[in-house]
Amino acid sequence: VTHSIPACIGSMTINSKQLDNKSPVSIFAVNKCYVTVQEGTFFDGSGFAALVREGYKVRSDVNITLEFRTTAVHGVLLGVSSAKVDAIGLEIVNGKVLFHVNNGAGRITATYEPRGTNSLCDGKWHKLQANKSKNTILLIIDGNLVQTDNPYIQSTSADTNNPIYVGGYPADVKQNCLTSKNSFRGCLRNLVLTKGQQAELFDFSRAFDLHGVFPHSCPGAEH
């Protein structure tokens, strides 16, 4: 076995002597344990997860689904960009969810504005679906649909070639369809990107770069 275990380990003794895990000689990628946990990945508000090192190609169609839970009214959910202007982006700004798409001719945005500023940032799970089909984009939050008109109807393909950044992105990386630099604080789960009939569920523990992200457990209460 060459990989770590996604688990909590406590009260370890060797030869009847209890190990002191409060002051280890060295430590790497070990987080706190939680009294209550939920399925999901915890983002502590300081970093990001980077997926698909070789670059994700959005092109004409993509359907993104995920669930999020947060108490913060700002935060990046997901961004895929290119060196040019083509990109897609999902973010929470002032308690609203924004889905931005640029197929090369200009940015268009679908905005979901809840009735109350904090109603999406209430610490409960919310379901999000963002769909780009050629020049049409729509956003569905908890079953509520938002669609937007696209004046750039000739432009249909977002020719992206960069990794998928989730929950934030590095300072030296350009994101053409995100307005926020705030890293997401909260939990995400069930991130699926679908192209045609091909659905891909992303496991954050397989990200090629992780900062401030803890796969496999979403804390209910700290211990």
Describe this structure in words.
With 223 residues, the chain is mostly beta strands. The strands form 3 sheets. Strands 4, 5, 6, 7, 8, 9, 10, 11, 12, 13, 14, 15 and 16 form a 13-stranded antiparallel beta sheet that branches. A two-stranded antiparallel sheet has the order 1-2. The chain contains no helices and 17 strands. The chain has one domain: Jelly Rolls. This is LAMA1 protein. Pfam families: Laminin_G_2 (PF02210). InterPro entries: ConA-like_dom_sf (IPR013320), Laminin_G (IPR001791), Neurexin-related_CASP (IPR050372). It comes from Pandion haliaetus.
Which architecture would the CATH scheme give at its second level? Sandwich
Oligomer: single chain
- Report, as a whole number of angstroms, the end-to-end distance: 29 Å
- The CATH topology assignment is Jelly Rolls
| Share in β-strands | over 45%
Number of strands: 17
Helix content: under 10%
Structural class: mainly beta
What would you call the shape? elongated
Quick one: biggest sheet? 13 strands, antiparallel
